[in-house]
Design goal:
The complex is a heterodimer of chains A (304) and B (455). Chain A is α/β, with parallel strands linked by helices. Chain A is built from twelve helices and eight strands. Chain A has an eight-stranded mixed sheet with strand order 3-2-4-1-5-6-7-8, sandwiched between helices. In chain A, a hairpin with a 7-residue loop joins strand 7 and strand 8. Classes of the chains: A alpha/beta (304), B alpha/beta (455). At the A-B interface, helix 3, helix 7 and helix 10 of A face helix 2, helix 7 and helix 10 of B.
Chain lengths: 304, 455
Amino acid sequence: MSVFNRLRNGLRLTTNQLSSLFANTVTRETGGLDGDVSGEGLVALEETLLQADIGVAATARLLEVAGSRGGTADVRSVVKAELRRLLDGTEGARPTTVRPRVVLVVGVNGTGKTTSVGKLAHLLNQAGERSVICAADTFRAAAVEQLEIWARRVGADFVRARSGTDPAAVVFDAISAGKARGRDVVLIDTAGRLHTHVNLMRELDKIRRVAGRVVSGAPHETLLVLDATVGQNGLAQGRAFLEAAGVTGVVLTKLDGTAKGGIAAAITSELGVPIRYVGVGEELDDLLPFSAEHYVEALFEPVW
Amino acid sequence: MFASLSERLQGVFAAVRRESKLTPETVESALRGIRIALLEADVNFKVVGAFIDRVRDRAVDRSVLESLTPAQQVVAIVRDELRTLLGSGSPGLSKAQQLPQVVLLLGLQGAGKTTTTVKLARWLRAQGRHPLVVSTDVRRPAAIEQLAALSGDAGIRVHEPDPQVGAVDRAQGAIEMASSLGFDVVLVDTAGRSHVNDELMGELEGLKASIAPSDLLYVADAMTGQDAIKSAGEFNRRLGITGVVLTKMDGDARGGAALSVVSVVGAPVSFVGDGERLEDLQPFHPDRIVSRILGMGDVLSLVEKTEQVVSQEDATRLKGKLQRNEFTLEDMREQLGAVKRMGPLDRLVDLLPGMRQLASHAPGEFDAGGLVRTTAIIDSMTVRERRRCQVIDGSRRRRIARGSGTTVQDVNRLLKQFMEMRRMLRAVGTTSKSRKKKKGGRRRGALDSLWLQAR
């Protein structure tokens, strides 16, 4: 199955709802997608976008665009193009030739960091890159055991620490091990932390400094794992982690529910951080590289 | 908790208060502000729509517009409607009909079910109950170990059959164990699942049928967006939820999900989780939360928190010391310890009316670091120094600073603060004495006026 088809399948429920909702509201209120968009039609469109968690500010911008061009163009393609523009056009981390490449995975509690690290190792594995998985979540009970099971499934190297020890120390060990064994990537799973806890956010800074001491330029990539069901708080999370941990990309998880992850569009446009991967299921290969075009296409494809 | 929503709404109300007279137009503009505030707080847009309509219906009434205090009336209407929205059910668990009482915790992946299970067990034990916990999450790697480890930390008994045992048998085994060993409540943790996964939802229905729980708690992430209404609605439709636990309330989520979930499920919020420590779980009081959202503070919760950490005798003893002017650095240290036990300072700020705005003007004044430093300085003194601070000369100050890892300036500042505090406390002590003599003077204590404001 092609990547696009897998994404489409994963997003099927989401898409069904969004596009049927879209078709219904817009058709009902304006008498057709090509009709004049004003007044009631815009209200319906606003609700549609708000319901996708796109946010009040981003919705207002989209409405402005749709309103200014609504009279002549197909509303749907105007909004689609605009969403694609919002999601695209931001560059990720610059490619690096340094080995091992260090990828730091951060986020608030319960977004799916550990699972994403497991799946990411699998994805890299399939691309021929061998990875070391580093369990730097020394806080949550059994987080290390959970990641160890993933590492075994994927067949990646695993570096762990006793629970309660300093996460920066195990990061140091893992990167050193990756260097010594000539691995391509070191994936670091960190403990979930609410972005409002200043001291925990500072801990990330320490991890980054320690990583940079072992391999120059590390971490080369910092991925923020974001739950697709998150609402406007996602923006606050994005902003805080960007500031404290220099996030270079977003992993959008749990897209296999009915959540649309619309806040991702707001994050990309407001913070300039691209979405890199999306999680669409509980299986090992349910993490996909993100493509703005496919995502928007899948989101707006007619009910099938 | 709810801080930003509260700020936004207060901004709207301030604008309303500036108007000398309310017209349907000014009401409309206030409603627009409220709508945006609620939407940005992630309240579902359908819920927002209905809410705004209800407020509008009541607010454009002539008796409101022509009253002498139209702005207060509008605030009161919003408060009433928020209360209605949050439901009025009593917090906590249902009354046990039969023992052991069985509680099922369910929800989406990553909502915080496992942590909540242990927090709830701990809370129940503090209420004098005897909880037993069991994990039925045979799906997520190490989920069973996570529950066992957390329970171990909290000293909670876990039913732990062989990992091969299926979900239903695990839960039933726990209930049998509870009946034979005399545990009166069984908390059943479940695997996180998406509400659209028909197979897993069916599994949950089977589990429910076989153990007949009296409480089905839906664990929801406070940061959830518009989708909250759909997932909670589906869980409720298939399983019938009796209560909601909101987690991760210690972040800056505006908590709109709470309003959405409650309005769709019809069951009250039973508990909120507001921290990473296992004791960070509180029963939920809709009334108090509403006053907190509207910036009216929550003095009741503050009083309860104080009562938890300060015993009656301690309070009486301290009062006597104040009246005899014997307040020492030792007492100060004790007080600081009590404050620390009440939880993070910045969270206490939310409980006091108007303090949030004050705190935002003085960041750093309310951090726990200062508390730790002060305690360290007092710890570095000798017993004699603590009892008679007059003996602390320059040389002693240098020693104390070295011992506590601070500077002489820090020590000086603390001593100055202490002297000031003692002077103030002496005044309070004598006032309360003279008040007793005069049978109630005109002056009111600081706490009394807080009470008045909160009403």
